[in-house]
Specification:
- The chain is mainly alpha-helical.
- The chain has one domain (about 1-115): Helix Hairpins, CATH 1.10.287.
- It has helices at about 1-15, 20-40, 40-70, 80-115.
């Protein structure tokens, strides 16, 4: 049970201190609200949930790596810079994939609402 408390603490820290995590939170809430409004099927929810989880996981790991690297040294080191850039790239890939899932799942329903 202590590990779950630590995990929640980490998520609170992530949202409290990382601006991009707050962007992900706003996007996640908006997509959930839209999904409820549009009446997604169970499998559509699965796709949305997995896409959001991928983004949140990538963001948390990226932030953790950045914190750890900064704790080791504030000096610019080529390997640390590359590791940070790679982790940021992983967040970008996850976010783009989630956006595509959103377009595939939500797009047709939104389009039919707008066209009506």
């Amino acid at each position: 049970m202590k590990s779950v408390a630590h995990a929640w603490s980490g998520l609170r820290e992530l949202v409290a201190t990382e601006p991009n995590a707050r962007v992900h939170l706003a996007a996640s809430l908006a997509v959930v609200a839209l999904g409820l409004l549009l009446g997604l099927t169970a499998w559509e929810w699965v796709a949305i949930i997995l896409a959001a989880a991928l983004v949140w996981t990538a963001e948390a790991l990226n932030s953790a790596l950045e914190r750890l690297a900064d704790a080791v040294t504030r000096d610019i080191h080529p390997s640390i810079r590359a590791a940070k850039d790679m982790a940021a790239g992983a967040v970008l890939v996850a976010a783009l994939a989630a956006a595509l899932v959103g377009v595939v799942v939500l797009g047709p329903r939104l389009w039919s609402l707008l066209a009506a």
